[in-house]
Specification:
Layout: H1 4-19, H2 21-47
């Protein structure tokens, strides 16, 4: 199991990142960008064969 100090530091970090309005906005933008990139990769991997010319 994780040491109590490590868990406490993790809780404090998450509280600071999600509690601050300015950081929360930046984190949501980053999350949206990562989700769009991941969705694009999945889309191309799934339907990439349709892009090939015969």
């Amino acid at each position: 199991m994780a040491q109590p100090g490590v868990v406490q530091k993790l809780k404090q970090f998450l509280s600071n990142e999600l509690g601050s309005g300015e950081k929360f906005t930046a984190n949501m933008r980053l999350l949206k960008a990562v989700a769009m990139f991941g969705g694009g990769v999945i889309l191309i991997r799934t339907f990439g064969e349709l892009l090939e010319s015969s």
